[in-house]
Design brief:
The chain has 352 residues and is an alpha+beta fold. Helix content is 30%, strand content 20%. Among the domains are: 108 residues, Ku70, Chain: A, Domain 2 (Beta Barrel); 73 residues, no CATH class; 65 residues, no CATH class. Helix 4 packs parallel to helix 6 and helix 9 packs parallel to helix 10. The protein starts with 5 loop residues before the first strand and ends with a helix.
Length: 352
């Protein structure tokens, strides 16, 4: 079971519930060590005196605020501790706002919040239900690990989530930072182009299903490592498509609409946008002719649409199709698996 990274109380008005804060996400990025080319020796970072080149121990290091011209204001670690926010034990709601009023650019990390024991479930679920029915988020500040955070408390299905937010002065103004932007409230696109663009959006609309998307670049990095380990040839990906010529914009929009509709017509199901309009991209995970998914077969029968397909049926599927099978079968760690690993995992699942 996960361990709370912070414990305290959640308060709204005179109602208080002891809660714990839990990390909601985990990093699956492929990590590398730095090595010296030719020797394979590890390369490590050290804290050194830039004048003498000598390594400096942590207890000899103080903080310096740069005034420019080589002058610094020296601040000792204990001086920072004296002015740091106290060890917070409460997330106190300052008020509640409509969720739609919170600009997504303000949102940062997300955490789960859970009651510390079963006796607090009723109070916890009362707040969760009230937030869900009202469509509002609770705004609060709290301190964790010597730092103060602005947060939004929201209901998500049967739990409460706490989203760390950026302070207002941390948000950059795009109209001051970006040189090329359309004039506010004005566009050069014709009404016909806008109508076709809306039809393209309608044609590509789908229900949100996060399990349909996975880190394809991370998978390629892992495949690269596996291929190099086995001495195999590495095939580069095709480059990005060229920018659309403004003169051909209407034609490109209409062809996109036609392609999206025909793709759905052939498949009979929604596909992620990345698979709908790759007009000429090579699929490096295809190993044979595509098999159309059928209905889920009864246990023991070999159906290409189910998770109990034979090894021969599975080998004929592309990596993305194998990933869909693995998602349906509930195979853990599938987002980091290579095609061969997906085949092996699905085979083991079918044999179980």
């Amino acid at each position: 079971m996960a361990r709370a990274i912070w414990t305290g109380v959640l308060t709204f008005g005179l109602v208080t519930v002891p809660v714990g804060l839990f990390t909601a996400t985990e990093d699956h990025t492929v990590h590398f060590h730095q090595l010296q080319r030719g020797t394979g020796d590890r390369v490590r970072y050290k804290k050194v005196n830039e004048r003498t080149g000598d390594e400096v121990d942590n207890d000899e290091i103080v903080k310096g605020y740069d005034l420019g011209g080589g002058e610094y204001v020296i601040v000792e670690p204990d001086e920072l501790e004296e002015i740091a926010p106290g060890k917070s034990q409460a997330i106190e709601m300052a008020g509640f706002v409509d969720i739609d009023q919170v600009n997504p650019v303000h949102l940062d990390r997300t955490y789960y919040i859970a009651p510390q024991s079963k006796e607090y479930l009723k109070v916890y679920d009362l707040l969760r239900a009230a937030l869900e029915e009202s469509g509002k988020a609770g705004i609060a500040t709290f301190t964790m690990r010597g730092k103060e955070y602005l947060t939004a408390l929201r209901a998500q299905n049967d739990i409460l989530i706490l989203q760390i937010m950026h302070w207002a002065d941390e948000i950059r103004d795009p109209h001051k930072e970006l040189d090329v932007l359309p004039a506010k409230g004005r566009t050069k696109a014709s009404s016909r182009e806008r109508d076709t663009a809306r039809r393209l959006i309608d044609a590509l609309s789908m229900d949100w299903d996060p399990d349909r998307f996975h880190d394809t670049f991370g998978e390629r990095v892992q495949a690269l490592v596996d291929a190099k380990r086995e001495g195999q040839e590495i095939v580069s990906e095709a480059g990005p498509p060229e920018a659309t010529n403004v003169v051909d914009l209407m034609d490109a929009l209409q062809r996109s609409v036609d392609q999206a509709r025909s793709t759905r017509g052939r498949s009979g199901a929604e596909k992620p946008p990345g698979e709908l309009h790759r007009l000429s991209s090579r699929r490096d995970d295809d190993t044979g002719p595509k098999k159309r998914q059928g209905k889920q077969g009864k246990p023991g029968k070999k159906k290409t649409g189910g998770t109990r397909a034979s090894a021969k049926d599975l080998k004929s599927l592309s990596k993305s199709e194998l990933y869909e099978r693995a998602t349906k079968a509930g195979i853990a760690g599938r987002s980091k698996m290579t095609r061969d690993q997906l085949l092996e995992a699905l085979g083991a699942k079918a044999a179980a």
